Amino acid sequence: MQTTRIAIIGAGLAGLYAACLLEKKGIRDYLILEAKDLPGGRIASTSTYGNPGTEAVAGFDLGPTWFWPGFQPEMDRLVQDLGLVRFEQFETGELLLERSPDQPPVRARGYVNSPPSMRLTGGMNALLQALQQRLEATRIHTGQAVRRLRLSAPHIELETEDGEGRVSNWRARHVLLAMPPRLAEQQLDFAPALPRSLAGQWRDTATWMAPHAKYIALYDTPFWREQGLSGAAQSAVGPMAEIHDASLPDGPGALFGFLGIPAHVRKRLSEEELRSHCRNQFTRLFGPRAATPTAEFIKDWARDPFTATEADQAPSGQHPRAPATTADTGPWRKRLTGIASEWSLEFPGYLAGAIDAARRGVDDLC
User: What is the 3-state secondary structure (H, E, C) of the chain?
Assistant: First the structure.
């Protein structure tokens, strides 16, 4: 049984950033337990083949895409400190509105976000990779899904299970929960049980992005710009409800969209059926050149067991309100702290929220 001062559950943005903050404070007695085979959490950027026979492509986000330096300065400072390259979301040109299946899409005046939405060269996965490079690889234990946490003074005993069902045990004096509160409340067995009010808050906090699915199609060039279009579209027809230009500044053209089909309906369709419907929609909106992407990707977060619960299958429509990060009283007080994005007081659900919550959690601990 490995013993450590601090165990971080989750190797997404919050977990990796928390580890970097501990390192800055001179604390190296920690480990990270990650359920998936690779770090990342809800950040996922394409790095594999989109279609058989195509070249590998990278840098297109299947998870969160944007941040806003204008009102998220802490996130922007981290991006600059890591030496990452940012660029503005392309929004020049008109947008398309698809109001009815009986009417063709209409052009409308486009809009530009202010402050501008920013993306990262290499996708948001570049942020994860840069953080990982600051950490010792031996501290990150992937494929270790935490199942149980048991208080056994002076330690918390953690039980994990790998993909083959093998069980491992770990001990820590404090646990940082870098996973969504609802997921933690449902998937982790706490002994003794969490205070009822705290468990209720975590259970009622929607996991941002968990109900959503995202489709990306790549093209040789962003040909829609030749038509004076921004690549943005809004549709009441679907399957995608909201569409944006996903092109890289010096790379291929790309479009992405958020599927408006509810998760329980998507379950009835195969991935190829969903791709076909999405291609057809792009063709309706942007013309016949959109029918033959060079590569395409789809990610349904509602099917990810380490992101979504049954309660997350229906979208809440707004970013969650931050619950309490820890117990005010009882045996779990000052032993367990939530640091995932949903625990952020300023930006719950956003990438910047993971940065904010992780910093607050580490500051409270140290």
Answer: CEEEEEEEECCCHHHHHHHHHHHHCCCCCEEEECCCCCCCCCCCECCCCCCCCCCCCCCCECCCCCECCCCCHHHHHHHHHCCCCEEECCCCCEEEEECCCCCCCEEECCCCCCCCCEEECCCCHHHHHHHHCCCCHHHEECCCEEEEEEEECCEEEEEEECCCCCEEEEEEEEEEECCCHHHHHHHCEEECCCCHHHHHHHHCCCCCCCCCEEEEEEECCCHHHHHCEEEEEEECCCCEEEEEECCCCCCCEEEEEEECCCHHHHCCCCHHHHHHHHHHHHHHHHCHHHHCCCEEEEEEHHHCCCCCCHHHCCCCCCCCCCCCCCCCCCCCCCCEEECCHHHCCCCCCCHHHHHHHHHHHHHHHC
